[in-house]
Fold this sequence. Notes:
heterodimer, A: alpha/beta, D-Maltodextrin-Binding Protein, domain 2, five-stranded mixed β-sheet, 11 strands, globular, B: alpha+beta, Beta-Lactamase, Helix Hairpins, 4 domains, 17 strands, rod-shaped
Amino acid sequence: MRCMRWILAVLLLLPALALAATAAATPFRIGVAPHSSARVIIEMYQPLRLHLEQVLQRPVEIVTAPDFTEFARRAMAQDYDIAITTGHQARLLQTDARYLTLLTYQADFKAVALVAAKSRYREPKDLAGSTVIGLSASSLVTLWGQHWLLRNAVGNATLQYVSASDSVGQLLLKGEGSAGFMSLANFQNLPKPVRDQLRVLAESLPMAGRVYVLNARHAKQHAGILAALWAFAETPQAKQYFAKHQLGGYRALEARELIELDPYANEVRLVLKPAK
Amino acid sequence: MHFTPWRTVRGRLVLAALLVELVMLAILVGNSLRLLHEAMGEQAREQAEQIAPVLSAALVAPLAQYDYATVQAILNESQAIRGIDYLAVTDAVGAIVATSGWPVGKPLPPVDARFSLDDDDNPPRYDLALPIKLAGQSLGTLQFGLDLKRIVIARKNLLTQGVLIAISELLLSAGLLTLLGLLITRQLSLLTAASLNVAQGQLTPAPVPEGQDDVGRLGAAFNVMSRAIAERVEQLTRANEETARIAASLQDRTEQLNAIFDLSPDGFVSFDAQHHVKYASPAFFRMTGLKSGDIVGLDEAVFSARLAKVCLDAADFPGLAALKIELAASGPTGNSEAGKPARAQRRLLIELSGPGNHVLEVSLRLSQAQTVSQILYFREVTHETEVDRMKSEFLSHAAHELRTPMASIYGYAEILMSQRFSEDEQEEFLAIIHRQCGLMVAIINELLDLARIDDRRGKDFKFSSIDAGQLVRDVIADFGIPAGQQAVVLDTPAQPCWVHADAGKLMQAVRNILSNAYKYSPSGGEVAISVDPVNAHANASVGICVKDHGLGMTSEQTARVFERFYRVDTSGNIPGTGLGMSIVKEIMELHGGQVEIQSRLGAGTSVTLWLTPASASL
């Protein structure tokens, strides 16, 4: 009888073991919203990748997407085990894709509206009828900018999307656009000659900029992975990483921070909604 | 004789030069191919090294973004680069995410561990795979194939053109070397041809060209040599002809000697220098019954033993050693002159034990020749010794027969001279002496008759046709019938029976057998004589038959009746000389006739003289 129990136990454990083996061979995928170029993103998150590989004892890969909309679509399709994205997409993933929140950076995330320093655009109303430049229809800074234009009653502004913050700066300097939206951090990372020729026309309030959310299929490991992230924050590599990118370290995320971004999340939801 | 080209010096030099050139050209072409391979391989690797970082950099972002459409676009653009056969990108887990120039769904080819133009790829291709990494993170793998068709074609062209150039070079070199060889060795060819002519028997070849260089001096030396050879050959030819003539002469002489040996009744056995039997003549083998294999090769001692073994008395032949001792002892008479063969003087006779009891005279002759040490000579003397024996026996018998009457005459004459006897006694003694003298006269006459017959062998016979019946009647008419005996019963045919005969001799023969018939019929008895007609005998046509009824003879006595001095009566009561029947036999043989005797002891004897008819003899 005891023998039969053992055999039954082994038979029951076999699928679990096979699944575990498959999981061990499949990379743990961390999707990072394309707030910068893919090369920069990959290099930036290597310390975290290496740490998680060591903790999870499985391959970990950093991936991104061509743009925020595509990133949101993939995240919604459960492509990522951890998604590191802006707060409004994190809110969307939390509500619509059952992702679990983990933490965020201590540094504030702000969006800025930039114009060329020598341009004629001194007030929001100067932008009326001009072309403004955003990163992506789904990016937080672009959505904030759209909302900012709306709040400032800027009429007939045409929005042009580009792929990178650098491009926004260059286009503004060339006069291809009247104003552009990017994060404050990206603005500060622009080359100084470029930055010196730009002027901040408006700045947002602090927002949940980059939020770590965990795919619900790893809900049981939520605490472990969260602990691993906190442990990473204590490593020299993490401190160097935080310092290099002026992130200040990790902090816990308050629930309200994502809820406040529901309007922006809804914008993304609309973008992702299939056209009828 | 014709040498194949590669067996000539010129041919071998050309072959050696071509072989060296072939090796060098093979090395040249092979090295060119190797350099091409290495250069092309290096170029391919450089091309790969140039392409890979660019593509890798271009693919990092789309791979990190999972932007496979961009990856595909990059691959499509890159595939336009000349020399790239295909491109493919796999993700971090190895799944193909984009390909260009490679069929979708088809597994990617294995990556080549090293550059090689001889793989089984079709088309020829160098497959490479490079990991796409960023900051240590593997984003995927870029695999691409460099098209090697141009390199393979270039190598093939290089090989083809290299081989063609090498063949052309070899052909040109072969022609040039052959021409040079011909120019350099043409005199050697003439010299070779002349040497072959000499080897084939033409010993006076045409002179080859001469000159001051090595080959020219060789030609001069060859000319001198060929002239010397011709002279020597002429001398040898003459010597050979002389030798052949001598050999022919020797052969002729040998054949003559062999014929002489074959025909000679005398036997010879020669010994070589080591005193082994070297040769024996056919007559020797006939005489002794020995075979060539029995004696040839034997040394003289063994040969002596073998010869003694066939003698009736082995002691007759003392052996060669004894003969040589005896020869040496004979001194000057044996070998009086230096250098002349020595010959034994004593006559040595041996009687052989074989059929016929041959008696041989043996003599030894020593030789000074190098190949023959001695010759043993055998002469058949069987008949000679038999004649000697018969003569001695005859003389003994004659003396014995003559001594008997002589003793009687001598005794009675001595008594008459020493004593006085009455007249009757004297007459009786004188009558005895007279009778014995008559007997002696008869013996002497018959001896003389027999001697004359033996000596003349019929040469004094006077043959003519004689009537046998008449001859018989004449004999009876003159024959004195012994006292107390019956007259002869005569039976002759009425017609003449002609025979070819000497009348006197034939009458003597008839008289002898008629006399014997009466003498061996001491008790009387009829004595008949008849003449048988023609065809009474197979060989002789006419038979004169004398038949008595006297003592008769045994078969042994009948067999010996023709022996001289043989007498059937050994008592001495019947007078006779023992020569009568011998005389009859001699006469009949000289007539070509025969004597037939049929006798039975105690019943009488019948003697028939068979003669040839006169007509048949003519």
